[in-house]
Structure prediction request, 133 residues.
Amino acid sequence: MKVMICHDGSDSAQVALERTVELFKAGKPDVILLTVVEEPLDATSVDEDSFDKWKAKRDEDLRDAAQWVACNGLEVDALLAVGDPRKMILEAVSMKNPALLVISRSGGGTEKLVIGGVASYILKHALCPVMVV
Prediction:
C-alpha cells in the first residue's frame, strides 16, 4: 500500500504525518511525502532570492520529515514540486497512484471549523481517497 502525505513544514502537517504513521505503521505502507513550493508572482531578484531561500527551507523540512518516517521503520519517497499546490498535488497523485492521500486542514482558532482552500479543492478533485487530519 502507498500513502501520500502532503507536508509543508507546518505544525499541522507534522501532526498529520505522525498520526498517519501511527495509524498505518503496522501495515508497513510505502510513504510518499510531498511538499509544494509556489513560484513567486513577481520576477524581481528580491522575489527570486526569497523564493530560493523558501524552497531551501521547505526542502530541509521535507528531508527532516522523510528521516522521521524512515526512523519509524517505513520506506519513504520524498518529492518537492514547484507550482500551484492544487495542481501539483493532483499531478503527484496521478503519477504515484497512492491508495490514500493525506492532507492537513489549515487555519487556527475559529478557522479550525473550516477546511483551507487547497484541502477543499483536493477533496473535490482527487481520484483517490483523501484523509484530512
Summary: The chain has one domain: 2-132. The chain has a mean pLDDT of 89.
